[in-house]
Specification:
The complex is a heterodimer. Chain A is mostly beta strands. Helices cover 3% and strands 50% of the residues of chain A. In chain A, a hairpin with a 2-residue loop joins strand 7 and strand 8 (64-69). By secondary structure, chain B is mostly beta strands. Chain B is globular, with a radius of gyration of 13 Å. Classes of the chains: A mainly beta, B mainly beta. The interface between A and B is medium-sized, with 26 and 28 residues.
Chain lengths: 117, 114
Amino acid sequence: AQTVTQSQPEMSVQEAETVTLSCTYDTSESDYYLFWYKQPPSRQMILVIRQEAYKQQNATENRFSVNFQKAAKSFSLKISDSQLGDAAMYFCAYRGDFAEYGNKLVFGAGTILRVKS
Amino acid sequence: DGGITQSPKYLFRKEGQNVTLSCEQNLNHDAMYWYRQDPGQGLRLIYYSQIVNDFQKGDIAEGYSVSREKKESFPLTVTSAQKNPTAFYLCASSWGSGYQETQYFGPGTRLLVL
């Protein structure tokens, strides 16, 4: 079974600085998708970024980018120019073979990000 | 506005009572999902449905039931058999099959036991 591990329960960053959140996963599959979701205090889950495993190029969405290391099974999220609105719980998620698992997402335990002004 | 709605925002259950959480989407998505979130933990899949009148168990289906009679609706019933129902429940939807499909989430329902 696939597992997703977020080893940092909590992180802090100064406003305007850069922070990196870590995520590792375990799988025997070669094709899969990886996601970062943000959950602010409102508890609404918001998609931040996604990465297809077959793409070597790291995904980027404005101030958010990932460092995808397939061989190492690592998928970290970098937030540049951090803003107060970035404060939230961040979840890393994995989706594997659709034929076997449907569209099921496997989530990590989350990392709380605090942004200091 | 297109989106996913969940109601109620807060729900209180008495011992031995069944309660139903509502999830509605107007995104024309084929697939819908129910997740449970406990404090300090990630989300765990309860049930999912990829087409109308069909659904599959997720990782923690015991004590829960669902129906999918309409494409836009996927209600979740928490039965009395669920001994620890206090949690935050999230509904999600996506277009359906395929690796490229991204799940989008509703605002959630907080269930508390009296």
